[in-house]
Records
---
Amino acid sequence: MDRPHEHNIGLVEDTVRQISSSKGEPEWMLELRLRAFALWQETEMPKWGPDLSGLDLANISYYSEPLHGASEDWGEVPDEIRDTFVALGIPKAEREYLGGVGAQFDSGAVYHRLKASLEAKGVIFEDMDVAVKKYPDIVRKHFMTSCVRIEEHKFSMLHAACWSGGTFIYVPNGVAVELPLQAYFRMNKMRSAQFEHTLIIVEEAARLTYIEGCSAPQYVAASLHAGCVEIFVGKSAEMRYISIENWSKNTYNLNTKKSIVAEDGNMMWVSGNMGAKVSMLYPSSILLGDRSHSESLSIVVGGDGQVQDVGAKAILLGADTSASIISRSIASGGSVVGYRGLVDVHGSARHALAHVVCDTLLLDGESRSYAFPVTRVCGSTSSVSHEARVGRVNDDALFYLKHLGFSEREAMRVLIGGFLHPIIKELPLEYAVEFNRLIDIEFLEGESRRSPHKALS
Amino acid sequence: MENILREPSWFIAWKKSMDKTYVPNTDVAHLPEYRIEQIDKELELYTLKEAFETEGIRELVEGLLSSALLPNPVDEAAAHARSSISSGLVFYAQPKIDDTGIAIEQHAVIETTVSGHMGADLLIIIAKTGAHVRVVDKVIERDRGARFSRLCVVLTEEGSSVELANVVDVKGLSVDFQRYGLVGAMAQVRFLDEVASSSDCRIETASMLIGDGSRSVIDHALLADATGRFTIADRIDVRSKEAEGNISVAGAIAGSAHITYSGHTATKEGDIAVSARESARFLLLNDSAGVEATPAIDVLDRHTNVAHELSITHIKDEELFYAQTKGIPLPEARLLALEGFFSPRNLSKGFLGRLHKCLKAYE
């Protein structure tokens, strides 16, 4: 496919200005981008975590101007792009059980539609590029101001400078969005970067489930995904954010996700991380309001030399706040699977409770697992507990199942399924089925886990 | 400067290699003082000076300090502490066999009194094949505001065991321990602490499980009160098969004291049938107290079982209420809860007394 408006291998200020002008953004957004770009230039690469030396930031395309705008009709989406999403099952899912769908191809949205019944209730589900212009006041107030700050780390700075596309969702007071909304991000171009920005505001006593999926075809050269998710959970509101990250194994996935939760609010992160060459993902919840609660459930699957440095953070500020972090990981094929997390209970968080569990199964002798859970507590009224186990599939359990007639492969599948079940059961049924299928492919069939997309690679 | 302590040149060179700003110690009046309360007669004990002058022991000490197995100092402060060593003790244990042919444990109880501005010493315990040794060392502060550093190296040959129990009950003395266990095949090293302090306390403990079937236990009972700042770093480095490591910490924090704890259990490929466990528990006694804990693990072989657990909590109202319903007054109920937190350790009277005073102070 011809792409005459590709920007630019390597990142310079002109690229940042071009991104902003091609989108017709307001002046304040350009200023934000330029400030972020200046910070990014003077900030060093992080000295902790996995090795990022394979990421050649000087030889990545940071923006590919979309040839077409977003449509509300799959029939209007260019054939080759539509076929990609059909193969991924997106239009079918939209018809059968979703309240709205957004689809992004490289740097721009190609499809965006919300059910009329939700629009009538005042729900906004918009492409982020459009939202900046259509809802400037609310976006400007929340966009990388208090949740994820531009200065947070080198890749939040890069994201702020280069962001393109993404999702804006606003749910008014008291509105319960019963059907999930979904966005799917496809990074199709070789040696490229995707920086979608997701901003979700769930107002008082509102309710929302949002699902993000992502993938890319397999190339040799490295690609970068440095998206950002900011979620504001209002008083007594409930938010469930589900993501299945299945980037190809040449992708560096350095996503930043954070939520701020108000009084009596409830935030749940459910993540399935299977792809990418290197992942650094730490969904964070700031429990600002009294009695707010967060849960983070994650499955991490490492294979074929991948490095999954994944965890979660909970910062407890309000009284009677609580947080739960559960991570289940599987490592095989010489992968490195690590948990890196933080529970920080401030003195103001009286009677706070937090619990962390991170367990890993090592399936072969070449893989590695580590855990660096940091816990800070100040004050004498809170309680925090943490436990972690690393080991292999229990020989006794394997023997027992084989004794009942299971083959070794079937027995392993049963035990791995049982290990992951507490998290998989929180996924929507269709995603749980898909995730189980991907695990079968990854561990038990020895095929490329990208086989559904081979024809498109 | 004059070599007042008449240390051998290799030892001076070793200290210089630690810290390029090394200056020979001339404050001989304030060297740590040792009092032997009890020692089995078969257990050989040398001062550092005597060790330097005794053939066989001298070579062992030099070999241990220059061994590649001895970890490097973690930072400048640790390096400076090593370069300041000016006295010490060396225990050398041969197996002691009773009439029935069974190897029995040899004991020593010593007191180390620290005075003056700063003291730094070296403690070496060598257990030959089949020897079993238990050393209890109590650190006494004579002058508040002093600083005491100790480098401790324990070497256990095949089938031997060493238990080193440090008892530290101080108010103004800052303490810095670097302790390393080199554990041979079927041998065991246990580092046990009871530390109560209102001042700075830094303890780094690492066991290298070198021989197959080796074991190590690192166990701390800690009380940080007033403005105490504790930095505790434990590491079990598995380099063999069928090894077992156990790290256990129980710490109570009061006043505006703070404990920073890091644990690390690391195994490498080929370390099969390894079992390791880290357990850290902290009890915060008032609102200004704080703790930061990172019990880390790093596993490279699937034929291992490694687990860790952490809990940070406080004395719960329900526990106190239950005790009171049984007729126990509130102050006693709090003390029972605090003692119970440290169980199943058998705490010394000194430590229990300090717990008692601490509770009274922060009621």
Note: The interface with chain A takes residues 269, 282, 284-315 of chain B (CB under 8 Å).
---
Amino acid sequence: MDVRNTVSAERPERGGEIAFDQSLAGLAGIVVKGFLLSLATSGIYRFWYATNLRRFFWSRTLVDGSPAAYTGRGEDLFVGFLVAIVVLAPIFAGLSALSLLLPDSPVIAYGLGFVALFLLGQFALYRGRRYRASRTLWRGIRLGQDGSGLVYAVLAAGWWIVVLATFGLAFPFMRAALERYRIRHTLVGTSRMESRARGLAVLPSWLLIWAVVVGTVVALTILAMLGIHARGSRLGEVVLPILTILVTLPVPALYPFYRARETRAFLSAIRLGEVRLVSQMKAWDLYRPYLAYLVQCLKLGILITVAAAIVVVIMMVSGDAVAHSVRFAIGAVIVVALYAWYLVSSVVLYVRVLKAGLWRAVAETTRISDVAALAAIVASAGGMSSSLGEGMADALDVGGVLDIGF
Amino acid sequence: MTALTGAGRYFDGRTTRPVPVSLRLEAGRLEVSGPDLRRDWNGLDLRAEDARPPLMRVGPADTPERVEFSDEALAAALEALCPDLHAGAATEGITLKVTLWSMAAGIALLGLAAFGVPVLADALAPLVPVAVEERIGAATEKQIGYLLGNPAACSAPEGQAALDRLVTELGAGLPPGLHVSVRRSTTANALTLPGARVIVLSDLIAQAQSPDEFAGVLAHEFGHVAARDPTRALIRSSGIAYLLGYLVGDLAGSAVIVALGETALSAGYSREAERAADAYSVAAMTRAGGDASALAILLDRIAADTGEDLAFMRSHPFTRDRAAAIRALAAAAPQPLEGRRPILDAPSWEALKAICAAPASR
């Protein structure tokens, strides 16, 4: 048995571990059921699926030995979604009417639409977080979030303008500012969280990525110019495309490195009264789930290819033993079965390997500095908040079922 | 029955302070005892929260008090003892309800997309102001030109004059903004855009073997103009895509599902619109004294069905069905008394065929 999952009643004054279930028993069942029922109900079951996933992830996360609890309900999310449709419908109608009325200046229509959807999306993300916080309990203490979704949306928009104006250099400062707003409006019972996240702390890691991106753009420009001159030659046809791919590869590969540094800095900057969080996250902790997911997907692909090859060989060997139409029917059934197997397996892999892996990476590299001081946290009388934000986030396709971290 | 004992932690639900306690399960009751603490809970009242076995977090349903312990024997005994241990927590039982209701809702939304939206589009299309339609048409024409690779507009003066005569003859009763243009293309087709704009791709003129064949197609497009089909189709497909997009949500491949669904749902209506435009063509050709069945000859020649593709996905009806319907309508139409002559005289038809020839080369 994993020692971190046992109750440490005998040594309560030690620093508290945050642990995540190692076996993930039962998760695949939730995913398969959720995926198939979502298909069968043309997507409406997704709200209950998301709820089941969250219940699983929350309850398998042990903070100082006690599991977190998610008390949200699929009905809440569904109602929030319905309300969001009604709220969004006139906005969407207005935006499309605008683009019809101004066909000659599409930039204005697109620009306005983009700004409106961005603000709505940020608003939805913030309010969705409020819903999740107010449905999260630990040792019977409810989390909560105040602050204004509108202020958050404006703050995010303003910071994005700064980021664009500085060619991306301000990105870590934006992340820190938004993190501070979120954390400082997060409550555990009656205790307010405090964040001392600073953009400067992660600026060096960001500069590394930034330099690579700028270098890539410069390199691609040079390659493109070379390509114009070398058209038709071996250099232009073979070498330059390969170089282009090689030059572009490091950009996405470096982002987890930055996210790991940021997670470590921002989580360690969180205070709750006397309690501090300490994150030991290394870049490798985030790369591992991605690599594991990649490997598992490759294995699945190979497995399915081999299965398909075996089927083809059997069909060819069996020859004219069965009628043509029967063989066609059997072949169609097998193709559908293989495709269904592939779909279901890849969804299971995505949740079990990637999502759970990232979740575990954050949970298990984080500790609570002083568990004894946690005893000062007292339940609040605050109620639960509405699910409009979650519904809107779903309708706008922003945010995920499982947002990692606080 | 012997008593089961174990160690655990007690939480009062108002603070996060853990209190080490000893647990004792006997005669259907769970006893919790620790420093200054003594609870005696009835097993029937106990509820367990989600946790990974063997960890169990359990307490009475009506208080926030809980004990946590990791003891397989004790957990198994509680599972056996308390019938309502997991009641009210899980979404069991609700799954079937949700599935059935949401399937019903999905069917209702699909029904709305399939039957409600087209009715709405029919009702809304005439309400769109001409100026707006005109603007949309201009923007769409730009877009189409871009998609076709910005083909040159063909307007050799003699050809244009012949085309204008055909348009005047066939387009009686159409809105005054009617605008027919010819674009150089290797595709034989004609399109109608919102705002009474018709684009003829030049290969259609090249492939037509008589002026009546070409005039039949032109009259068919005028049928779309008269019915404001492009505006209707625009409203309809955006409405359907909007509804299906909400319905499908964030599932893998949802964009494909929406696109397929939109095509399938729109196709039925556009097939109907095509038949109506064919009927309009026959009527207009008959009125102008042309050969209304020439359209069927042209269709049979250049748009022969290439196979049994998915009939319900086709935006146009099968050509053989269309051609047969056109011939039947043409046969039923009143025939001109003094015998039939081509709708354009030979020199005009030659000029129209040369509408794409650059003026400089002649």
Note: Residues 229 and 348 of chain B are 30 Å apart (CA to CA).
